[in-house]
Amino acid sequence: MRTSFKVDNWRFDALNGVTNLAEDGSFEAYSSDPQFLLTPVRRRYPRAGDYFLSTNISSPQSVVDLTLYFDVGFGFNEMLKVRVSAATNQLHREIIHIPGGVRKIRIDPGSNPGKIRIVGFGLKKISTWMTLQKAYNSFKPRIQHPGDLIHYALKGVKLLFTSGGLEQIKQKIFVYDRQNYSKWLNLYGDITTEMEAEMSAKMEDFTYEPLFSILLPTYNPKQQWLLDAVQSVRDQIYLKWELCISDDCSTDPVVRETIKQLAAEDDRIKFVFREVNGHISANTNSALEIAEGEFVVLLDHDDVLTKDALYQAAAVLQNQRDANYIYSDEDKITEQGDCYDPYFKPDWNPDLLHSQNYLSHLSIIRRSVLNQVGGFRVGFEGAQDWDVALRVTRSVSAESIVHIPHVLYHWRAVSGSTAMATDQKSYIEESQYKTLRAHFDALQIPVNISLNDVNYWDIGYPIPDPQPMVSIIIPTKNQKKLLYKCIESILSLTTYKNYEILVVDNRSDEDEAKNYLDSISAHPAITVLKYDKEFNFSAINNYAASQANGSQLVLMNNDIEVLTENWLEEMISLSIRENTGAVGAKLLYPNRTIQHAGVILGVGGVANHAYLDAPANVIGQMGRARIVQNMSAVTAACLAIEKNKFLKVGGFNEVDLKIAFNDIDLCLKLLEAGYRNVWTPNAVFIHHESVSRGQEDTPSKQARFASEVQYMLDNWSKLLENDPAYNLNLSIERADFSFSFPPRVDRV
């Protein structure tokens, strides 16, 4: 019986769940987990880098979800895999990243039994030369004379020699399928007839059927867009709704006639015509006055709801009757009706809401709560939705703010709309500032509010006077040059005054290091502690924390180098807040690409750093690489936390997590205790990680690492499967906020 076959330059050896292998690459999958060992016929296994993956698979399924697993010395596991969704019976090309040190590759072609044939399979490395050649070809049509050639050549050379420049060129030149929203929508975005029927069947079991009042303020909308907006309401699968239209004295007479006609066609449509133009806040309040539903739904006059928008909200309310604010993911829609630029949002994230109005569309608010806070405030036009979101969310419990991880709202991007750009309306910046100022005044917190360079907001929180004492804990062994750079950068750049440095020496045995430790012991701000036991990162930090004089702790690796002078003010101003747990910083590699921008749970099985290896100035999804926000976890390579909170949750787990994941575990214990962890891009460091980091290169180390992985999976599986600061529509195979193919959440 045949146990293998060859496709292109790869041999496929059967491992599990397959039979009847044929020479042409066909086989029978008799389980939901068919597996092959994938071996290159001529060359060695691919080295680390980005590759073009090309596949052509014939299957009974319309889409094949194949998974590649990479063994780099720990066996095949969920931490190192790439999952690809490809339409059957056609060539599929996608860029994937392959880690270094690959010893074996496993391919799981699909997850359904049936007759399958692998027609084609290939991996081609994206080389520097290929990247530059592509770049040249893309600029070639713009070259009209020799001067243009010189201009673009100089521009390319400048970018190439910028740190992270080649990666920027690569990302601009190649179309990454994982960021192809059109492809994602074609595969997973449609509400099919079968899905609609299943939703209708589920509604028969609903024990709670709230009335939704959709508030639609209008003012001179384009007729077709108004008709589209109303039709999207009438197309709702959930039928218990009313549409409350308020027109703000439109000068176009067609608007009123259209509204009257729509109301005549459907008795669920109500309207009011204002006699005086009052702008968006007053107009929305007029719609609110005629609303009778338990919940109000906010809809702009040129936007569109998905047909399951109200169904999804009603489904949530079956189990969360006390919900007060429900919001969903969103995307934008062009004048021609094409959808693009989705915002796959996190769950309730108050620090993110202070940086941007991420709630916005779709917002569904309990009507009694909205009335209680005073509805929409005149004078906040341009940021009126943000003002409402801030006032409502600070008046209700966090548990009653619910996120639906589906795109339920298409925001029309037309000239003059904030969906196109915030600078389309000159008063928006002033209104946003006024909104944030009013919010923090209501909270009685004297903050500094400023707009950053990507047009999102930074909030500067106050530090008590006198400054609280901060204990900076730095474990070390040997590595004198690294420790010297770390200590000197702290002493020379830190503007915060009240701190001590606790250097914890874990058996340094190099004369150079021991002499340096002796010399810094004389500094009045530095204490050298001895830890004369085997290396245990958790135990070392716990010991140092017990010796710390400060009420605030900063945990710092010895390979960290300070770049921003006010780093300690930034981190401490966040960590001293009552509800804040751990605060993480922005860490860069020496080549100025990102090493840490917060931690995403579940990536690679347990966790990985957001925007790893991206250029330092990357903006990220909706600016999230450049703004303060809540993250589920941050790295302890540079982490601030109040000492009493650290001790309250038991510090680091020095029994089960001696080396790896102890910082993730700490952060999740803080979440469990009711705190919110924070990442800030405004405290920036170099992390010389590749220099000091040990390798998992012995059987005992690998066994220890495997046990630490298992501990995290056993104790934190729910959070690892669904990071509340991330989104189920985003990939956990990469940490770059790319789309998950398929999404990890069912629409029905």
Description:
With 748 residues, this protein is of the alpha+beta class. The protein folds into 4 domains: 4-125, Jelly Rolls; 128-173, no CATH class; 193-448, Spore Coat Polysaccharide Biosynthesis Protein SpsA, Chain A (Alpha-Beta Complex), CATH 3.90.550; 470-691 and 699-721, Alpha-Beta Complex (Spore Coat Polysaccharide Biosynthesis Protein SpsA, Chain A). 30% of the residues lie in helices and 27% in strands. Strands 23, 24, 25, 26, 27, 28, 29, 32, 33 and 34 form a 10-stranded mixed beta sheet that branches. Helix 1 packs across helix 3 and helix 12 (384-393) runs parallel beside helix 13. It starts with a strand and ends in a 27-residue tail after the last helix.
